[in-house]
Design brief:
The protein has 6 helices and 36 strands. With 614 residues, the protein is mainly β. The strands form 6 sheets. It has a 22-stranded antiparallel beta barrel. The protein has a 5-stranded mixed β-sheet with strand order 5-10-11-8-9. The longest helix is centred in the N-terminal third of the chain and has 7 residues.
Length: 614
């Protein structure tokens, strides 16, 4: 069925998913923690899985909106096109630079500004199998810039999306359309799609703001999946092309990507995987153009050594070619630059006893800006009883310098900072995951993060020009929790939230003219409650309540919002749904950068969606 969710190895109908037990849902395989499939219930990290069923019932029309489902993320919408997304703090347009985002193994993190340009990340949500959201460092496996978390978006194999799908959406502020078709040619499954969207402008909140930021775009793509050598070899080739435009700064975004992956299953459960991809992003602003090309090659080997060791090791080489042309004073001395990184990593999961596992890992990564960084990881998981896992971890990660950090200049105002170093984190974590009862699950984690060499803006010789330096340090600590409770076989409640405290300061004798912009603009707490009801095999009703605390750094007030969903499965291949988002207020403010962006209100939306499979 086109409204299917997935669990490992098989597509599920909506009715199948609604009858899965808590224990069965805990068996969903995740790959972000050890780079090999393991049950969610065994993962020694704070990981939340957003399923295809969660996305379908949420009515999300973009990846950032789908990420609101993860209680261990901060998602702030800035305007019609822009978002800032982070884990464990540092969430603002200036500071959201510590979250690594992967789409089928392809990084969408930009080395130009150390961020994710969400308006250029187009993922057809109907093709997503799951999104693994890890809060906490992931540097050992995923490399630099996986500092506070990793978002790993995994789409369905082409064989799981056979036949046709038409999806049409229309709302008070948004219109969408998608056409997808999948088929088979011998042992090869393939699909192709085309999708488009048009979003109305957000609301101006400043009296003198006369700007609009309507946002629209289109994308097309394909995926091939094949097998050979009696099923021992698996191949994937996929790619996308897109063009988006927003009225904000008259910005046009064009780009595309091509990714290939080969996996061979070896003896004794071992495997070898080689992946390569090319990605290009062109951003044309009113005052600048930014052309970024990425070339990436990586390989990894999973193997079992004896009865106690699960080892994964590998290597990666990535090359970025950046061309940035500015029509204003803020520019790079050289328009073009080449940035490269190479890395080697290894991780060993050691079974100390039937219920106790120790994980030791290390990545050595060399970046042409920052030189060599060592990223170690130590994790201990103790299954104290069936359905109850305690875990703890100590790890280190870094955010490497971007072109902005090292090269950005403005004559007489800002000098380049060739000595800018990597920002550094040492993280201490403690967590629990388990089933307090047969119809409930709970995940609870606490963290204490120690940061050093965070970015500041300093005077040179007591005056202008300014220069970026690494003169901020300090700690953050907090708690994340989420739970699921099945009241009946047709009604499930989800609850989650996080609490964060920051204690950042300048190093002795230092100053920061940016007023701690690199520290982010974070609410002290976030809470959410979701109710999912399958009233009959044909009718669904969902309600979500979200509460986000005040952001003192940018004077963004606390807000509470509610979302509703009513769905009707007219036939097994036809679904009609109605969504209401942000229903409690006509508009509200979620976040902005006081230094260069006006505040924009995010409005109430009513949206209807029709899905037809054939």
């Amino acid at each position: 069925m086109l409204v299917a969710g997935t669990v490992p190895g098989a597509a599920q109908t909506v009715e199948d998913l609604s009858t899965l037990s808590i224990e069965e849902l805990g068996s969903v395989k995740v790959t972000s923690i050890s780079k090999r499939p393991e049950p969610l219930s065994d993962a020694a990290a704070a990981v939340y899985v957003i399923t295809a069923e969660d996305i379908r019932r949420s009515g999300a029309t973009s990846l950032p909106e789908a990420l609101r489902l993860a209680p261990n993320l901060e998602v702030a919408r800035l305007n019609s096109a822009g978002y800032s997304v982070s884990a464990r703090g540092f969430n603002s347009p200036e500071a959201a630079n510590k979250l690594l985002v992967l789409v089928d193994g392809r990084s969408v993190y930009s080395p130009v500004a150390s961020t994710v340009f969400w308006e250029a990340v187009n993922v057809p949500l109907a093709d997503v199998e799951r999104i693994e959201v890890v809060s906490g460092p992931g540097g050992t496996l995923w490399g630099a810039n996986a500092v506070n978390g990793v978002v790993n978006v995994i789409t369905r194999p082409a064989g799981a999306t056979q036949g046709g799908l038409v999806e049409l959406g229309y709302g008070t502020r948004e219109r969408t359309g998608t056409l997808r078709y999948g088929t088979r040619v011998g042992d090869t499954a393939l699909r192709g799609y085309i999708t488009g969207f048009d979003r109305g402008s957000s609301h101006a909140l400043a009296p003198d703001d006369r700007t609009t930021d309507d946002f629209g775009g289109s994308q097309a793509g394909f995926r091939f999946d094949g097998a050979g050598n009696g099923g021992a070899d698996r191949y994937t080739l996929q790619g996308d092309l897109y063009r988006n435009h927003t009225d904000w700064l008259d910005t046009t975004l064009r780009g595309g990507n091509l990714l290939g992956r080969w996996t061979r299953t070896l003896d004794a459960g071992s495997s070898l995987q080689v992946q390569a991809y090319y990605d290009r992003q062109d951003r044309d602003y009113l005052v600048a153009t930014d052309d970024l090309q990425t070339f990436d090659l990586q390989a990894q080997h999973n193997l079992t050594v004896g009865d106690r060791h699960q080892v994964v090791w590998g290597a990666q080489y990535r090359l970025w070619r950046s061309a940035f042309r500015s029509l204003v004073n803020f520019r790079f001395p050289d328009e073009q630059a080449t940035i490269s990184l190479g890395s080697l990593f290894a991780q060993d999961e050691i079974a100390l006893s039937p219920g106790l596992k120790l994980t030791l890992g290390m990545k050595a990564e060399y970046n042409s800006y920052s030189g060599l960084d060592l990223l170690p990881n130590l994790r201990l998981a103790w299954r104290v009883a069936d359905g109850h896992l305690l875990w703890t971890a100590v790890s280190r990660s870094v955010r490497t310098p971007s072109r902005v950090d090292r090269e950005l200049s403005a004559p007489g105002l800002l000098d380049p900072a060739p000595e800018f170093r990597s920002e550094r984190l040492t993280a201490y974590e403690l967590g629990y995951r388990g089933q307090p009862s047969a119809n409930s699950s709970l995940s609870l984690s606490g963290f204490y993060n120690v940061y050093d060499d965070l970015r500041t803006v300093n005077l040179t010789n007591g005056g202008l020009p300014l220069m970026l330096r690494n003169d901020m340090e300090g700690t953050t600590y907090g708690v994340e929790a989420w739970a699921r409770y099945s009241l009946t076989n047709w009604w499930t409640l989800h609850a989650g939230g996080n609490w964060l405290h920051k204690n950042l300061r300048l190093k002795p004798g230092a100053s920061d003219l940016s007023n701690f912009q690199a520290a982010g603009q974070d609410p002290a707490y976030q809470l959410q409650l979701r109710s999912q009801m399958t009233l009959t095999p044909e009718v669904e009703f969902d309600a979500t309540l979200r509460r986000v605390g005040r952001v003192a750094a940018s004077n963004v007030p606390a807000y509470t919002e509610a979302d509703l969903h009513v769905g009707w499965h007219v036939t097994p291949s036809v679904e009609l749904a109605l969504f209401g988002r942000n229903l409690l207020h006509a508009r509200h403010l979620e976040g902005y950068d006081p230094s260069n962006n006006p505040p924009r209100g995010i409005g109430r939306t009513i949206y209807t969606r029709l899905r037809v499979g054939f």
